Protein backbone atom coordinates (compact mmCIF):
# COMPACT_ATOMS: atom_id res chain seq x y z
CA UNK A 1 0.00 0.00 0.00
CA UNK A 2 2.11 2.87 -1.27
CA UNK A 3 0.69 5.95 0.37
CA UNK A 4 3.44 8.41 1.12
CA UNK A 5 4.36 9.00 -2.50
CA UNK A 6 0.77 10.01 -3.21
CA UNK A 7 1.04 12.98 -0.89
CA UNK A 8 3.87 15.23 0.19
CA UNK A 9 4.28 15.32 3.92
CA UNK A 10 7.64 17.00 4.10
CA UNK A 11 5.91 20.32 3.87
CA UNK A 12 4.39 19.51 7.26
CA UNK A 13 7.80 19.77 8.91
CA UNK A 14 6.63 22.86 10.72
CA UNK A 15 4.26 20.70 12.75
CA UNK A 16 7.21 18.73 14.09
CA UNK A 17 10.42 20.27 15.34
CA UNK A 18 13.39 19.34 13.15
CA UNK A 19 15.17 16.18 14.23
CA UNK A 20 18.19 16.58 16.44
CA UNK A 21 21.56 14.91 16.12
CA UNK A 22 21.81 14.46 19.88
CA UNK A 23 23.21 11.09 20.92
CA UNK A 24 21.25 8.31 22.56
CA UNK A 25 21.36 7.98 26.35
CA UNK A 26 23.81 5.48 27.77
CA UNK A 27 22.43 2.22 29.13
CA UNK A 28 22.50 1.56 32.85
CA UNK A 29 22.27 -1.94 34.28
CA UNK A 30 20.20 -4.05 31.90
CA UNK A 31 18.05 -2.58 29.15
CA UNK A 32 15.20 -0.18 29.85
CA UNK A 33 12.53 0.29 27.18
CA UNK A 34 10.23 3.29 27.36
CA UNK A 35 6.66 3.06 26.06
CA UNK A 36 4.73 6.33 25.62
CA UNK A 37 1.01 6.56 24.82
CA UNK A 38 -1.92 8.92 25.11
CA UNK A 39 -4.46 7.59 27.52
CA UNK A 40 -7.23 7.89 30.04
CA UNK A 41 -7.64 6.26 33.46
CA UNK A 42 -8.99 2.98 32.09
CA UNK A 43 -6.40 2.69 29.30
CA UNK A 44 -3.57 3.64 31.65
CA UNK A 45 -4.64 1.06 34.22
CA UNK A 46 -4.71 -1.72 31.64
CA UNK A 47 -1.45 -0.71 29.95
CA UNK A 48 0.53 -0.44 33.16
CA UNK A 49 -0.79 -3.87 34.18
CA UNK A 50 0.44 -5.27 30.86
CA UNK A 51 3.85 -3.69 31.38
CA UNK A 52 4.07 -5.21 34.86
CA UNK A 53 3.22 -8.62 33.46
CA UNK A 54 5.78 -8.31 30.68
CA UNK A 55 8.48 -7.29 33.15
CA UNK A 56 7.67 -10.34 35.27
CA UNK A 57 8.29 -12.54 32.23
CA UNK A 58 11.62 -10.89 31.35
CA UNK A 59 14.93 -11.03 33.21
CA UNK A 60 17.11 -8.67 31.21
CA UNK A 61 14.64 -6.04 29.93
CA UNK A 62 12.53 -3.58 31.88
CA UNK A 63 9.71 -1.65 30.23
CA UNK A 64 8.75 1.71 31.71
CA UNK A 65 5.40 3.30 30.85
CA UNK A 66 4.79 7.00 30.20
CA UNK A 67 1.37 8.47 29.50
CA UNK A 68 -0.37 11.80 28.94
CA UNK A 69 -3.82 12.87 27.85
CA UNK A 70 -4.39 13.27 24.13
CA UNK A 71 -4.23 17.10 24.27
CA UNK A 72 -0.68 17.06 25.69
CA UNK A 73 0.72 13.93 24.12
CA UNK A 74 1.91 15.30 20.79
CA UNK A 75 3.29 18.48 22.35
CA UNK A 76 5.48 16.39 24.62
CA UNK A 77 6.48 14.13 21.74
CA UNK A 78 7.57 17.12 19.67
CA UNK A 79 9.82 18.24 22.52
CA UNK A 80 11.31 14.75 22.76
CA UNK A 81 11.96 14.69 19.02
CA UNK A 82 13.85 17.98 19.28
CA UNK A 83 15.93 16.68 22.18
CA UNK A 84 16.72 13.34 20.59
CA UNK A 85 15.23 11.46 23.52
CA UNK A 86 12.02 9.94 22.23
CA UNK A 87 10.82 6.79 24.00
CA UNK A 88 11.58 3.50 22.27
CA UNK A 89 7.93 2.75 21.51
CA UNK A 90 5.26 5.37 20.85
CA UNK A 91 1.57 5.27 20.11
CA UNK A 92 0.42 6.81 16.83
CA UNK A 93 -2.80 7.40 14.94
CA UNK A 94 -3.38 6.89 11.24
CA UNK A 95 -3.94 10.57 10.51
CA UNK A 96 -0.56 11.74 11.85
CA UNK A 97 1.60 8.68 11.23
CA UNK A 98 2.85 9.85 7.84
CA UNK A 99 4.28 13.09 9.19
CA UNK A 100 6.44 11.15 11.64
CA UNK A 101 7.58 8.79 8.90
CA UNK A 102 8.46 11.70 6.61
CA UNK A 103 10.52 13.34 9.35
CA UNK A 104 12.32 10.13 10.29
CA UNK A 105 10.95 10.06 13.83
CA UNK A 106 9.69 6.48 13.40
CA UNK A 107 11.64 3.79 11.56
CA UNK A 108 10.72 0.68 9.52
CA UNK A 109 10.10 -2.62 11.26
CA UNK A 110 10.89 -4.90 8.32
CA UNK A 111 14.31 -6.04 9.61
CA UNK A 112 12.71 -7.36 12.80
CA UNK A 113 9.83 -9.32 11.24
CA UNK A 114 10.31 -13.03 11.79
CA UNK A 115 12.93 -12.36 14.46
CA UNK A 116 11.84 -10.21 17.38
CA UNK A 117 8.57 -9.18 15.74
CA UNK A 118 5.83 -11.68 14.84
CA UNK A 119 3.09 -10.42 12.51
CA UNK A 120 2.12 -13.82 11.12
CA UNK A 121 -1.39 -13.68 12.65
CA UNK A 122 -2.01 -9.98 12.05
CA UNK A 123 -4.81 -9.14 9.60
CA UNK A 124 -3.56 -8.14 6.17
CA UNK A 125 -5.70 -4.99 6.31
CA UNK A 126 -3.79 -3.90 9.42
CA UNK A 127 -0.42 -4.66 7.81
CA UNK A 128 -1.41 -2.68 4.73
CA UNK A 129 -2.48 0.29 6.86
CA UNK A 130 0.93 0.37 8.55
CA UNK A 131 2.89 0.02 5.31
CA UNK A 132 4.16 3.12 3.52
CA UNK A 133 6.18 3.08 0.30
CA UNK A 134 6.67 -0.66 0.66
CA UNK A 135 8.05 -0.50 4.20
CA UNK A 136 6.24 -1.61 7.35
CA UNK A 137 6.29 1.11 10.01
CA UNK A 138 3.31 0.70 12.30
CA UNK A 139 1.87 -2.22 14.26
CA UNK A 140 -1.89 -2.02 14.79
CA UNK A 141 -3.02 -2.34 18.42
CA UNK A 142 -6.71 -1.92 17.71
CA UNK A 143 -8.92 -1.53 14.67
CA UNK A 144 -12.22 0.02 13.70
CA UNK A 145 -14.44 -0.48 10.70
CA UNK A 146 -17.51 0.91 9.01
CA UNK A 147 -20.55 -0.97 10.19
CA UNK A 148 -24.24 -0.94 9.38
CA UNK A 149 -26.24 -1.70 12.54
CA UNK A 150 -29.78 -2.95 12.14
CA UNK A 151 -32.79 -3.79 14.32
CA UNK A 152 -33.19 -7.56 14.00
CA UNK A 153 -36.84 -7.47 15.12
CA UNK A 154 -37.86 -5.19 12.28
CA UNK A 155 -35.90 -7.23 9.76
CA UNK A 156 -37.54 -10.44 10.98
CA UNK A 157 -41.03 -8.93 10.87
CA UNK A 158 -40.42 -8.08 7.21
CA UNK A 159 -39.05 -11.55 6.45
CA UNK A 160 -35.55 -10.24 5.78
CA UNK A 161 -33.39 -13.13 7.02
CA UNK A 162 -29.57 -12.73 7.17
CA UNK A 163 -27.89 -15.48 5.19
CA UNK A 164 -31.06 -16.23 3.24
CA UNK A 165 -32.81 -13.17 1.85
CA UNK A 166 -30.10 -10.77 2.97
CA UNK A 167 -26.31 -11.19 2.96
CA UNK A 168 -24.87 -8.81 5.58
CA UNK A 169 -21.41 -9.19 4.04
CA UNK A 170 -22.30 -8.87 0.38
CA UNK A 171 -25.43 -6.86 -0.49
CA UNK A 172 -25.70 -4.07 -3.04
CA UNK A 173 -27.33 -0.63 -3.10
CA UNK A 174 -30.05 -2.09 -5.31
CA UNK A 175 -30.74 -4.84 -2.77
CA UNK A 176 -30.74 -2.23 0.00
CA UNK A 177 -33.45 -0.32 -1.85
CA UNK A 178 -35.55 -3.46 -2.16
CA UNK A 179 -35.34 -4.72 1.42
CA UNK A 180 -35.51 -1.22 2.95
CA UNK A 181 -38.79 -0.64 1.12
CA UNK A 182 -40.04 -4.10 2.16
CA UNK A 183 -39.34 -3.32 5.80
CA UNK A 184 -41.28 -0.06 5.54
CA UNK A 185 -44.22 -1.84 3.93
CA UNK A 186 -44.27 -4.61 6.56
CA UNK A 187 -43.57 -2.61 9.71
CA UNK A 188 -44.26 1.03 8.92
CA UNK A 189 -40.62 1.83 9.75
CA UNK A 190 -38.26 2.79 6.90
CA UNK A 191 -35.59 0.15 6.39
CA UNK A 192 -32.57 2.45 6.44
CA UNK A 193 -31.26 5.87 7.35
CA UNK A 194 -30.83 8.20 4.39
CA UNK A 195 -27.11 8.77 3.73
CA UNK A 196 -27.59 11.60 1.25
CA UNK A 197 -25.83 13.98 3.67
CA UNK A 198 -23.43 11.36 5.08
CA UNK A 199 -19.95 12.33 3.93
CA UNK A 200 -18.39 9.11 5.18
CA UNK A 201 -20.62 6.99 2.98
CA UNK A 202 -20.01 9.39 0.09
CA UNK A 203 -16.25 9.05 0.62
CA UNK A 204 -16.57 5.28 0.39
CA UNK A 205 -18.73 5.57 -2.71
CA UNK A 206 -16.04 7.64 -4.43
CA UNK A 207 -13.57 4.81 -3.82
CA UNK A 208 -16.10 2.27 -5.05
CA UNK A 209 -16.25 4.18 -8.34
CA UNK A 210 -12.48 3.88 -8.75
CA UNK A 211 -11.67 7.49 -7.88
CA UNK A 212 -9.63 9.15 -5.13
CA UNK A 213 -11.36 11.50 -2.71
CA UNK A 214 -8.21 13.63 -2.66
CA UNK A 215 -5.64 13.55 -5.45
CA UNK A 216 -1.86 13.42 -5.01
CA UNK A 217 -1.62 17.19 -5.26
CA UNK A 218 -4.34 17.69 -2.62
CA UNK A 219 -7.04 18.61 -5.15
CA UNK A 220 -10.52 17.12 -5.07
CA UNK A 221 -10.99 13.84 -6.90
CA UNK A 222 -14.74 13.18 -7.34
CA UNK A 223 -16.29 14.06 -10.68
CA UNK A 224 -19.67 15.60 -11.34
CA UNK A 225 -20.91 12.18 -12.46
CA UNK A 226 -19.86 10.49 -9.20
CA UNK A 227 -21.53 13.09 -7.00
CA UNK A 228 -24.71 12.93 -9.03
CA UNK A 229 -24.74 9.12 -8.98
CA UNK A 230 -24.30 9.02 -5.22
CA UNK A 231 -27.17 11.38 -4.53
CA UNK A 232 -29.32 9.69 -7.17
CA UNK A 233 -28.66 6.29 -5.56
CA UNK A 234 -30.04 7.52 -2.25
CA UNK A 235 -32.86 9.38 -3.99
CA UNK A 236 -33.96 6.08 -5.51
CA UNK A 237 -33.95 4.39 -2.10
CA UNK A 238 -35.88 7.33 -0.64
CA UNK A 239 -38.44 7.36 -3.45
CA UNK A 240 -39.00 3.63 -2.92
CA UNK A 241 -40.01 4.36 0.67
CA UNK A 242 -36.88 2.84 2.14
CA UNK A 243 -35.79 5.93 4.10
CA UNK A 244 -37.55 8.56 6.20
CA UNK A 245 -38.91 11.55 4.27
CA UNK A 246 -36.28 13.95 2.96
CA UNK A 247 -37.12 16.84 5.34
CA UNK A 248 -36.84 14.51 8.32
CA UNK A 249 -33.38 13.32 7.22
CA UNK A 250 -32.34 16.91 6.43
CA UNK A 251 -32.89 17.81 10.07
CA UNK A 252 -30.27 15.23 11.08
CA UNK A 253 -27.54 16.41 8.71
CA UNK A 254 -24.26 16.61 10.60
CA UNK A 255 -25.73 15.12 13.79
CA UNK A 256 -23.31 12.71 15.49
CA UNK A 257 -25.16 11.93 18.73
CA UNK A 258 -25.87 8.21 18.95
CA UNK A 259 -29.17 8.89 20.68
CA UNK A 260 -30.37 10.61 17.49
CA UNK A 261 -29.54 7.74 15.13
CA UNK A 262 -32.53 6.23 13.36
CA UNK A 263 -31.95 2.71 14.67
CA UNK A 264 -32.01 4.12 18.24
CA UNK A 265 -35.01 6.43 17.87
CA UNK A 266 -36.97 3.79 15.96
CA UNK A 267 -37.32 6.02 12.90
CA UNK A 268 -35.38 3.57 10.73
CA UNK A 269 -34.24 -0.04 10.91
CA UNK A 270 -30.58 0.50 9.91
CA UNK A 271 -27.92 3.08 10.79
CA UNK A 272 -24.35 3.48 9.48
CA UNK A 273 -21.56 4.13 11.99
CA UNK A 274 -18.14 2.85 13.11
CA UNK A 275 -17.81 -0.53 14.78
CA UNK A 276 -16.50 0.95 18.02
CA UNK A 277 -19.89 2.64 18.44
CA UNK A 278 -21.79 -0.66 18.51
CA UNK A 279 -21.66 -1.04 22.29
CA UNK A 280 -22.86 2.53 22.76
CA UNK A 281 -25.77 2.09 20.36
CA UNK A 282 -26.85 -1.19 21.99
CA UNK A 283 -26.85 0.52 25.38
CA UNK A 284 -29.54 2.88 24.08
CA UNK A 285 -31.83 0.15 22.71
CA UNK A 286 -34.05 -2.66 23.89
CA UNK A 287 -34.21 -4.56 20.61
CA UNK A 288 -31.38 -6.82 19.50
CA UNK A 289 -28.88 -5.48 16.98
CA UNK A 290 -27.48 -7.16 13.90
CA UNK A 291 -24.45 -5.96 11.97
CA UNK A 292 -23.56 -5.69 8.30
CA UNK A 293 -21.06 -4.04 6.01
CA UNK A 294 -21.81 -0.88 4.06
CA UNK A 295 -23.53 -1.67 0.72
CA UNK A 296 -21.54 -2.74 -2.34
CA UNK A 297 -21.86 -1.49 -5.89
CA UNK A 298 -23.66 -3.77 -8.41
CA UNK A 299 -20.31 -5.30 -9.38
CA UNK A 300 -19.65 -6.05 -5.68
CA UNK A 301 -16.94 -3.46 -5.02
CA UNK A 302 -16.99 -3.04 -1.22
CA UNK A 303 -17.54 0.21 0.63
CA UNK A 304 -16.50 -0.65 4.19
CA UNK A 305 -12.88 -0.10 5.21
CA UNK A 306 -10.84 -1.17 8.24
CA UNK A 307 -8.87 1.58 9.93
CA UNK A 308 -6.51 1.03 12.86
CA UNK A 309 -7.55 3.09 15.85
CA UNK A 310 -3.96 3.19 17.13
CA UNK A 311 -0.53 1.85 16.24
CA UNK A 312 2.68 1.28 18.15
CA UNK A 313 5.84 2.40 16.36
CA UNK A 314 9.58 2.06 16.88
CA UNK A 315 11.33 5.41 17.16
CA UNK A 316 14.61 6.61 15.74
CA UNK A 317 15.90 7.10 19.32
CA UNK A 318 15.31 3.55 20.57
CA UNK A 319 18.20 2.39 22.78
CA UNK A 320 17.60 -1.26 21.87
CA UNK A 321 15.39 -1.86 18.80
CA UNK A 322 15.48 -5.64 19.26
CA UNK A 323 14.21 -5.41 22.82
CA UNK A 324 11.67 -2.76 21.84
CA UNK A 325 10.25 -4.77 18.95
CA UNK A 326 10.11 -7.91 21.12
CA UNK A 327 7.94 -5.93 23.55
CA UNK A 328 5.79 -4.62 20.69
CA UNK A 329 5.34 -8.18 19.45
CA UNK A 330 4.21 -9.37 22.87
CA UNK A 331 1.85 -6.40 23.16
CA UNK A 332 -0.21 -7.69 20.23
CA UNK A 333 0.42 -11.47 20.44
CA UNK A 334 0.83 -12.55 24.08
CA UNK A 335 -2.56 -13.92 25.15
CA UNK A 336 -2.02 -13.07 28.81
CA UNK A 337 -1.21 -9.46 27.97
CA UNK A 338 -3.94 -9.02 25.38
CA UNK A 339 -6.49 -10.46 27.82
CA UNK A 340 -5.74 -7.46 30.05
CA UNK A 341 -5.94 -4.98 27.18
CA UNK A 342 -9.25 -6.39 25.92
CA UNK A 343 -11.07 -4.18 23.41
CA UNK A 344 -10.18 -0.85 25.01
CA UNK A 345 -8.14 0.33 22.02
CA UNK A 346 -10.43 -1.28 19.45
CA UNK A 347 -10.75 -4.75 17.97
CA UNK A 348 -7.38 -6.59 18.02
CA UNK A 349 -5.91 -7.13 14.58
CA UNK A 350 -4.55 -10.55 15.59
CA UNK A 351 -6.94 -13.41 14.88
CA UNK A 352 -5.79 -15.70 17.73
CA UNK A 353 -6.23 -12.85 20.20
CA UNK A 354 -9.79 -12.24 19.02
CA UNK A 355 -10.57 -15.92 19.43
CA UNK A 356 -9.07 -16.02 22.93
CA UNK A 357 -11.05 -12.95 24.03
CA UNK A 358 -14.37 -14.22 22.69
CA UNK A 359 -15.53 -16.31 25.72
CA UNK A 360 -15.16 -13.37 28.11
CA UNK A 361 -16.91 -10.78 25.98
CA UNK A 362 -20.43 -9.46 26.39
CA UNK A 363 -22.90 -10.44 23.70
CA UNK A 364 -22.50 -7.16 21.82
CA UNK A 365 -18.69 -7.17 22.15
CA UNK A 366 -18.61 -10.72 20.79
CA UNK A 367 -20.78 -9.59 17.87
CA UNK A 368 -18.26 -6.86 17.06
CA UNK A 369 -15.34 -9.31 17.13
CA UNK A 370 -17.23 -11.83 15.00
CA UNK A 371 -17.91 -9.06 12.48
CA UNK A 372 -14.19 -8.32 12.20
CA UNK A 373 -13.41 -11.95 11.50
CA UNK A 374 -16.03 -12.12 8.76
CA UNK A 375 -15.04 -8.95 6.91
CA UNK A 376 -11.37 -9.88 6.47
CA UNK A 377 -10.57 -9.83 2.76
CA UNK A 378 -13.89 -8.19 1.91
CA UNK A 379 -13.13 -4.53 2.62
CA UNK A 380 -11.86 -1.69 0.47
CA UNK A 381 -8.33 -0.32 0.66
CA UNK A 382 -7.84 2.36 3.30
CA UNK A 383 -7.35 5.75 1.61
CA UNK A 384 -4.63 8.21 2.64
CA UNK A 385 -5.39 10.69 5.44
CA UNK A 386 -7.25 13.78 4.22
CA UNK A 387 -5.39 17.05 3.59
CA UNK A 388 -5.87 20.42 5.23
CA UNK A 389 -9.29 21.81 4.43
CA UNK A 390 -11.01 18.42 4.39
CA UNK A 391 -13.19 19.22 7.40
CA UNK A 392 -14.57 22.31 5.67
CA UNK A 393 -15.25 20.26 2.54
CA UNK A 394 -17.19 17.76 4.64
CA UNK A 395 -19.26 20.49 6.27
CA UNK A 396 -19.99 21.98 2.85
CA UNK A 397 -21.14 18.60 1.55
CA UNK A 398 -23.52 18.16 4.49
CA UNK A 399 -24.91 21.67 4.13
CA UNK A 400 -25.55 21.42 0.39
CA UNK A 401 -26.94 17.88 0.64
CA UNK A 402 -29.81 19.33 2.65
CA UNK A 403 -30.97 21.10 -0.51
CA UNK A 404 -31.14 17.71 -2.22
CA UNK A 405 -33.11 16.19 0.64
CA UNK A 406 -35.55 19.11 0.63
CA UNK A 407 -35.89 19.00 -3.16
CA UNK A 408 -35.01 22.68 -3.39
CA UNK A 409 -32.64 22.28 -6.35
CA UNK A 410 -31.75 19.59 -8.85
CA UNK A 411 -29.07 17.05 -8.00
CA UNK A 412 -27.03 18.20 -10.99
CA UNK A 413 -27.09 21.83 -9.87
CA UNK A 414 -26.17 21.06 -6.26
CA UNK A 415 -23.41 18.68 -7.33
CA UNK A 416 -21.81 21.36 -9.47
CA UNK A 417 -22.08 23.91 -6.67
CA UNK A 418 -20.51 21.49 -4.19
CA UNK A 419 -17.57 20.65 -6.43
CA UNK A 420 -16.83 24.31 -7.11
CA UNK A 421 -16.81 25.08 -3.40
CA UNK A 422 -14.78 21.97 -2.49
CA UNK A 423 -12.10 22.82 -5.04
CA UNK A 424 -11.92 26.40 -3.83
CA UNK A 425 -11.59 25.30 -0.20
CA UNK A 426 -8.71 22.94 -0.96
CA UNK A 427 -6.98 25.47 -3.21
CA UNK A 428 -6.74 28.01 -0.40
CA UNK A 429 -6.07 25.51 2.45
From TrEMBL:
It comes from the Bacteria. Its main location: periplasm. Keywords: Periplasm, Signal. Transmembrane segments: none annotated. PROSITE patterns: TAT (PS51318). It is found in: Periplasm. Residues 1-28 form the signal peptide. Belongs to the bacterial solute-binding protein 1 family. This is ABC transporter substrate-binding protein. It comes from Devosia honganensis.
